[in-house]
Design brief:
This protein has 494 residues and is of the alpha/beta class. The chain has 15 helices and 21 strands. Strand 15 and strand 16 form a beta hairpin. Helix 12 packs parallel to helix 15. The longest helix is centred in the C-terminal third of the chain and has 22 residues. The structure holds 3-acetylpyridine adenine dinucleotide (N01).
């Protein structure tokens, strides 16, 4: 179903070009069809539907937000197989969503956007793609920021003679059976695939720079009776989703966005989880974080700590000095001979946006507008860039709840802007610089004493200057209240 005949790109001026066929792009497409906004097209650089869930296929890939909450409110699925969905099931959900909501005729796979320039005279975007130019009155970027794999700057990385790959571009042709594997990184991706590949490795060495706080996952299959209830009594499914929403939302409402007494209680819970699985005191010490819980993304897993107890798994906490053709050499001179290196080193958030050559009003590029750090009004619109809407843009990431809830609000924001244009018979809508500055000052103010800034860690949430350009510092409810519908007083319509 993924294989799409390569249809020609649209020749007419589109009302909307949607970049990306992941959750954001598909949600935007569905809502455009419902609201009669068009013509629109969805371009996707990958060879399939699903965005991050199409690309990240590492063993054990799953979502750490429950399935019934990690899905679009207007595309319910009653028969999720597990409490926490695995990658294949989410990817299938997204493919079915595209098919069932009539998006396939709008979709152009294998089409990467390389740049876009605002044409002031015509009031439209001239977009360059890997398959030719496209014109569109407006753009919704559903690219997100986690699709540019970050490879570590370790001397000699290119010299390794074995197989090496990043977790986001998993080499399924590489047989890991009986191999000596090195995994660099201990974030959300690593803790999911390490237990899987440890089962077949001759030996697995995990290179940890910073241990993560890990909570129990309690994943389980969803039984036939519950599935039937969710199918025949939609209210039961809605109630379940609502319950999941509040369980997660309470974390923000109760104050987990700051260091508090609750932080200590949650840390004690995580330490107990570690102690139950790892009786070895020295290993436990190495796996215990030295920063406050919540500063980096809190991970959930029931099989990562047990995997660290396997006789064929070892944890290396020293500093890596260099990579050689044979493996990894540590600063203390110790060496690890390896057949395979897996980089679980995350993504380059700013790089994901920086690679796009977007030129707004008066020749201003997005890179210039963001030279002091990324920022957008509600994380969605940027002054100087009319009719451009970012989904999962700066400062809209969540540590406590489902991103899909944020995406849905962002889609509504973009659509309310487009509908306002149509109502007023105008062609360009652009956020006022003062509205954007006010929003950013408020967000940065709230972030300054937040757990992400004051919790004693560094993370990919912060840019080179230490400014947090990734996280939304409040509740989903607060974000949705502010972002769901655009207030025209924040915008200039021309
Ligand atoms: O990447 P990460 P990820 N030498 O950035 C280490 C989402 N996600 O792919 O902490 C040695 O979390 C780095 O060490 P340190 C989610 O938003 C969601 O795992 O910087 N180590 C860290 O341990 C997540 O936050 C799901 O000291 C180096 C690791 O590499 C985001 O994706 C599942 C290093 C990177 O961890 C990224 O997660 C998976 C170096 N030079 C991912 N450079 C869900 O379930 C980096 N590291 C929804």
């Amino acid at each position: 179903m993924n294989a799409q005949p390569t249809r020609p790109l649209p020749q007419q001026t589109l009302a909307l070009l949607i970049i990306g066929a992941g959750f954001s792009g598909l949600a935007t497409g569905i809502r455009c069809r419902q609201e009669g906004i068009g013509p629109f097209a969805i371009v996707e650089k990958g060879d399939g539907i699903g965005g991050t869930w199409h690309e990240n296929t590492y063993p054990g890939a799953a979502c750490d937000i429950p399935s019934h909450l990690y899905s679009l409110s207007y595309v319910p699925k009653h028969d999720w197989s597990r409490l926490y969905p695995q990658q294949a099931e989410i990817a299938a959900y997204l493919r079915e969503t595209a098919r069932d909501h009539g998006l396939l005729p709008h979709l152009h796979l294998g089409t990467a956007v390389t740049g876009a320039a605002w044409d002031e005279a015509q009031s439209l975007w001239r977009v360059e793609t890997s398959r030719g130019p496209v014109r569109a009155r407006a753009i919704v970027s559903g690219m997100g920021g986690l699709h540019h794999p970050a490879l570590p700057d370790i001397p000699g990385r290119e010299s390794f003679s074995g197989t090496a790959f990043h977790s986001a571009t998993w080499d399924h042709a590489c047989d890991l059976g009986g191999k000596r594997i090195g995994v660099i990184g201990t974030g959300a991706s690593a803790i999911q695939f390490v237990p899987e590949i440890a089962k077949e490795a001759a030996h697995l060495t995990l290179f940890q720079r910073t241990p993560a706080w890990i909570m129990p996952k309690h994943d389980r299959a969803i039984g036939a009776r519950a599935k039937a209830a969710y199918r025949f009594v939609p209210f039961a499914r809605r109630l379940f989703r609502e319950r999941l929403f509040w369980i997660h939302e309470l974390r923000a409402l109760m104050g987990f966005t700051k260091v508090s007494k609750l932080t200590g209680q949650a840390e004690a819970m995580a330490r107990r989880h570690l102690a139950r699985a790892v009786p070895d005191k020295a290993l436990r010490e190495k796996l215990t974080p030295r920063y406050r819980l919540g500063c980096k993304r809190v991970l959930i897993s029931d099989d990562f700590y047990p995997a660290m107890m396997r006789p064929n798994v070892s944890l290396e906490t020293g500093r890596i000095a260099r990579i050689t053709p044979e493996g990894v050499v540590m600063q203390d001179g110790g060496a690890h001979a390896l057949d395979v290196i897996v980089y679980a080193t995350g993504f380059d958030l700013t790089g994901s946006f920086r690679t796009l050559d977007i030129v707004g009003r008066g020749g201003l590029t997005l890179a210039q507008a963001w030279r002091d750090g990324m920022g957008a009004f509600q994380g969605i619109t940027v002054a100087g860039f009319p009719n451009l809407f970012l989904m999962m843009g700066p400062n809209t990431g969540l540590g406590h709840n489902s991103m899909i809830l944020m995406i849905e609000a962002q889609v509504e924001h973009a659509l309310s802007c487009l509908k306002a244009l149509a109502r007023q018979g105008r062609t360009a809508i652009e956020v006022r610089p003062e509205a954007q500055a006010r929003f950013l000052a408020d967000v940065q103010g709230r972030l300054s004493d937040s757990i992400w800034q004051a919790g004693g860690c560094t993370s990919w949430y912060q840019n080179e200057q230490g400014r947090n350009t990734a996280i939304w510092p409040g509740s989903v409810l607060a974000y949705r209240r502010g972002a769901r519908r655009a207030r025209l007083s924040d915008y200039r319509v021309s």
